[in-house]
Amino acid sequence: MELGSIIQFLENRTILVTGATGFLAKIFVEKILRAQPNVKKLYLLLRAPDSKSALKRLNTEILAKELFRVLKERLGSDLYSHLSKRVIPVAGDITHENMGVEDSTILEEMWKEVDIVVNIAATTNFDERYDISLALNTFGSRHVYNFALKCRKIKLLLHVSTAYVCGEKTGLIVEDPYKMGETLNGERGLDIYKEKQIIEDAISQLNHQNATDETITLALKDLGIQRARHYGWPNTYVFTKAMGEMLLGEMNEKKQLPLVIIRPTIITSTYREPFPGWVEGIRTVDSLAVGYGKGKLTCFLGDPDSNIDLIPADMVVNTMIAAMVAHSNEPGCEVIYHVGSSFSNPVKYSQIKDYGRVYFTRTPWINKDGKAVKVGDVTVLSSMPSFRRYMALRYLLPLKGLQLVNMGLCQLLQDKYVDLSRKVKYVLRMVELYEPYLFFKGVFDDMNTEKLRKAAEESSDAETDDFYFDPKCIDWEDYFVNTHLTGLVKYVLK
């Protein structure tokens, strides 16, 4: 594998990015614009009814973000004239043919000019409706692939998946593709098109029963979990992402389009660029940190000795860009990259818990009353049986008592009972969804990614500093205490 200059590769390049308002996509777009001012065009696909709405989303949900501060400082008053020539918002939706783009002029432009297609569009909700998740994460991949085939100058399709398509595998998990119909538990009969029919039949039956929208949503969420677990995946998200990979692999056997699949682990705030600690939204591991810092987390569920595989977002983006350079114009190539840290620089749950205590002791959360929240030890529940006992004693028995008292008082406490019951059910469902990751025993082999790192280092030392993606350089305590949690409080909780 050989890499030329990344900066030179990006010059005069035309790139189409789907899911452009997402966390990772924004960082990708910012990095391209900052690293190579002479990129020719970035077409950004945005879910919008028309071009005017797409432009509004570009300005309010992408360019207005603090993430673009460095670029704005660099370009000054020339910012918008510079971007207007290079950043083209496109109204569309990958759940439709031609990605839902209805403007024939824009379509023809993209088919004529686009060199690289980067598919980041997805729903990452573990508990998504099955119809929505299958349309976006599975069949959306097919629509993007077909669109890329129509691009006359196409050099590469880069598809962002997730490392957790592995389900609950243990041990060393390699960077291998999934074949069409392959399952994690050996169950036969997985047919992606049959899954679509199962959804349509379920919706038809629910409509026939005059089910409410809420009932239909709950039923389709449950259907997704049921179908995922039937074939060995823990939730709808990773199941539909795995099927998306299967579709891409099957299609590429016939068409031989250069294809790269990026499988990141748990993505965290930026490590260094455009500045340390930028993050958007409360991500998987952050919900624990936030709950702890606010004094609302009374217990910690998970194996303290298990690794939690984390990777800063800018390292994921740099891997994506390096992979684009490495594999453009390689007909028939299909390469998978695990982008994570559990193999080369693992960090344990117990360490994350300790880092949270250090940060929130040093910088306590100020509550609504203006008082600093004091943090301390929390109860560690290192197994699901211990969690169930804890929930039974602390919540389920009191809830049962409240139910009896409420009945004796002629439903006087009904609102309180319903509210508490709803919260308990929500916690139990979330724990059920996240259990596989709280006790995850796998390690993600990143041999392909390591080869890419070495190729990047050999091509240009100067560019390696700009397109870094080696997790071995991360000091996890320093990163969490001084970068990640600081950024979480500043950009998400402010």
From TrEMBL:
Q: Which residues does the UniProt record annotate as the domain Thioester reductase (TE)?
A: 17-320
Q: Write down the CDD domains for this protein, in alphabetical order.
A: FAR-N_SDR_e (cd05236), FAR_C (cd09071)
User: Where do the Fatty acyl-CoA reductase C-terminal domain residues begin and end?
Assistant: 395-494
* The keyword Transcription is annotated on this UniProt entry: no
Query: Which BP terms from GO are recorded?
Result: long-chain fatty-acyl-CoA metabolic process; suberin biosynthetic process
MF term (GO), any: alcohol-forming long-chain fatty acyl-CoA reductase activity
Give the family from UniProt: Belongs to the fatty acyl-CoA reductase family.
Give the protein's biological function.
Catalyzes the reduction of fatty acyl-CoA to fatty alcohols.
Name of the protein this chain belongs to = Fatty acyl-CoA reductase
